[in-house]
From TrEMBL:
Keyword terms of this UniProt record: Membrane, Signal, Transmembrane, Transmembrane helix
Signal in keyword set: yes
Stated name of the protein: DUF4440 domain-containing protein
Signal peptide residue numbers: 1-27
Species name: Neisseria shayeganii 871
SUPFAM superfamilies: NTF2-like (SSF54427)
Length: 212
């Protein structure tokens, strides 16, 4: 056996133990690819279900279908409103809805909301999800005013008996820039101008009075 053949045989013997390992790695990679595809498909299905829930709740709110809203929340749901109230449970939501939008002393005549998400919901174990984003809301009040706000929102959903339910929903607005503050500023500004004109007119009238 010449020197070249000896080197080739030695290299083959050294690499032989690695061949099964290489085959195993290829087999594991091939097996993991379908598993990853299955996981991605399952997650996409969950995201589609969450999108459907968002659309259902948005349509129900805009159409004032309270029963549909309550049918898609947990029994002990926690709802933090834009005006600082914390509502707990389905009965609490029903009372709040009736107080704000029904009856002779209702505050809101009509509301139109469009919920936008900033990213895919965060999934935890396939039965819990956290979503967040902002909404474009238009409120028609019974006093004739119309407010347009873009609050931030976040929601926690749980999957029970094969369907997603909202367990927590939080609304918040910019406390330094919102329609209430704008209305107050306009009222104060208008009142200040009115007072200045009144004082100016009074001073002018007093200045023109004949001296005795």
């Amino acid at each position: 056996m010449n020197r070249l053949s000896a080197r080739w045989l030695t290299g083959l013997l050294l690499c032989a133990p690695l061949l099964p390992l290489s085959a195993t790695a290829r087999a594991e990679t091939a097996a993991s690819a379908p598993a990853a595809a299955i996981t991605a498909a399952a997650d996409e299905q969950l995201h589609n279900e969450l999108r459907a829930l968002r659309d259902t709740m948005q349509d129900a709110l805009n159409a004032r279908r309270l029963d549909t809203l309550l049918n898609n929340v947990t029994d002990n749901v926690v709802f933090s409103t834009m005006n600082g109230d914390r509502i707990i449970g389905k009965d609490g939501i029903r009372q709040y809805f009736q107080q704000m939008m029904e009856g002779d002393r209702a505050v809101v005549k009509n509301v139109t909301a469009e919920f936008e998400v900033e990213a895919l919901s965060h999934l935890y174990g396939g039965d819990t999800a956290v979503a967040f984003g902002r909404s474009r809301d238009r409120y028609e009040l019974n006093n004739g005013e119309t407010w347009t706000v873009t609050p931030q929102w976040s929601a926690t959903m749980v999957r029970q008996d094969g369907r997603w339910l909202i367990a927590n929903f939080h609304y918040s607005v910019n406390m330094f820039d919102n329609p209430v503050l704008t209305a107050q500023r306009n009222w104060l500004l208008g009142g200040g101008i009115g007072a200045a004109l009144l004082l100016g007119g009074l001073g002018f009238w007093l200045g023109r009075r004949p001296r005795r």
